[in-house]
Amino acid sequence: QCMSLARNSLFFPSSRDKPLPLTFVPGVKLNRMNGALVQARPKPQAREQWANKLEFLLAVAGHIIGLGNVWRFPYLCYKNGGGAFFVPYVLFLFTCGIPLFFLETSLGQFTSQGGITCWRKICPLFEGLGYGSQVVVLYTGVYYIIILAWAFLYLFSSFSSELPWASCNNYWNTENCKELRKSNITEYSPEKSTSPVIEFWERRILGLSEGIEQIGNVRWDLALCLLLAWIICYFCVWKGVKSTGKVVYFTATFPYLMLVVLLVRGVTLPGAKNGIIFYLYPDPTRLTDPQVWMDAGSQIFYSYGVCTGVLTALGSYNKYDNNCYRDCVYLCLLNSLTSFVAGFAIFSVLGFMADEQGMDISMVAESGPGLAFIAYPRAVALMPLPQLWAIFFFIMIIFLGLDSEFVYHEALVTAISDMYPSFFQTGHRLFLFHSQGGLYVFQLFDYYACSGMTLLTFAILQSICVGWVYGADRLYDSIEDMIGYRPWPFMKCCWKYLTPTICTGTFIFSLVKYTPLKFNNVYEYPWWGYAIGGFFTLSSTLLVPLWMIYLVGTTPGSMRQSTPIIRNGHIVPSPELEILALLCCTPLHSTLFVVRMAIFKFFFLIFFKF
Question: What is the pLDDT of residues 502-559, one digit of tens each?
Fold first, then answer.
């Protein structure tokens, strides 16, 4: 307690947040590194925790195993050389994905804080990382809730005697609508004809306008589905980790059941073999294309949910001695394995569809919403019992998106409640995305607000902060105190060297290869549309330097005096002050303490100087 009082008084007289107290725990040693005292085990605080380890594992699995595993990874694998794509993918996995995943989870567990206040605890200068990541979480939450609304409407439409996207006999179809079969494939022209599934998507679901300039009217059926999605998400998180921990038992496991069902059905369809070969056939020459490596890196960041503060928030509800290192390795391997297996389920069905329509599979393979709401529904319409398989598929999509969505809510609420315990936010209902021009705004969010370049920026700064400013050795000592042993040294090497280097190279390549967004590769946004996209990107990334400027400008004292505070967080920055803290047991503003400190300083200098 003497050390805690002295340290708090010496270095945090005007701090907005009290540091974690140092307590002496039997069997726990205070480790000294680089002339600094590393904080021992934090004193337990009244904070919610997962009821058991399984709840944490399922919550994290539900967050990272999402739509990207189903609709993005298989397409990137086929597009970038099949099996050869695994070379850059595995490289990014072990040098960026797993190290950053472990970094964020361990920070949350050690500090017991969310995505903002964890940085305040270890390095206040980089607290802007927390604010920026929460802006990305807010944007991504809006992004996912829109997908859920689309999936709900597709699910409800599947309960009909005939799938509404299977024929051209509906009120929304045009005279250009043609059903694709082997018998009429030669008559089909993409320039002059459209398929019923595309018209269902663009005219029935979206009511798509001519451009972002024409926002149009709200689609009230989609708005009601949006409201339903918000209500479900609310009840998933309304009691914090107590409710989230119970919900994930179902939402995180049920998609696996659906994936297995669709996989078994897919591989038994005619033409499935051709689709799987198309998915995995290696093309080593593609490895010479820098875009392949860029796609591998972006998929790792997209799929593993790093640099958003979500993993930090989920880890903060762990018990202090939880083995987060082992958990992270297993969860990362599970995530990548799920992506790999999902490719078989998707491409077996696409191979069947290509065989049924007499088309090359490259003409039917899509990614993103195009796969979930156009390509796969088109394939399902060709199967026996199409309604059953459509229901299974869209239930899987809903649960994959739902897991990610309410975990984003949990992370955002955690970050805010850690800063302002009396504040609680339930979310914002944005009907703009369900207007007739909503898809154009949605694409701006996808391309700019939740872009890989934003996450790359945060990854570089996180690595620099922990690896060089706070100190990778210090964090390793903290992790050893939590789990009882030191993790593989390769992790520390990644934090300091490999991760920032690879992410910087990827970021530079992204800037060089940048091309403005085009909707469906045809429609060009107006200048103010790109300005909105730029605002989405800068609104999160600029918070980091702005916070640094603000903190340096408002911290009292000279630059030299304030540097230990804004750089080292709640760590005693010198051996001399460590000894002072051990010997002095009253606050700095106490006269007695000042006298004691002066006397001790005098004898200290005499002893060491002479």
Answer: 999 988 888 887 777 776 666 788 888 888 888 888 889 999 999 989 888 887 766 5
pLDDT tens-digit readout, 553-601: 887 766 555 556 555 554 433 333 333 333 333 333 344 444 444 444 4
Beta bridge partners of 435: 218
Structure tokens, 532:
């909105």
Domains (ranges, CATH) in the chain? 53-550 (1.20.1740)
Please give the model's pTM, rounded to 2 decimal places. 0.79
Using DSSP's 3-state secondary structure scheme, residue 194 falls into strand
CA distance 290 to 313: 34
CA angle, 541 then 562 then 578, to 5°: 120
Burial call 494-526: b when 16+ CB within 10 Å, e when fewer: bbbebbbebbeebbebbeeeeeebebeeeeebe
Strands 36-37 and 518-519: unpaired
Burial 214-233 (b: 16+ CB within 10 A, else e): eeeebbebbbebbeebbebb
Over the stretch 203-259, which tens digit does the pLDDT of each residue have? 888 887 777 766 777 788 888 998 999 899 888 877 777 788 888 899 889 999 989
Residue positions in the annotated binding site for Na(+)?
62, 69, 303, 335, 400, 403-404
DSSP class of 39? P
Q: Which residues sit in the known binding site?
A: 62, 69, 303, 335, 400, 403-404
Expressed in percent and rounded to 5, the helix, strand and coil fractions of the chain are 70, 0, 30
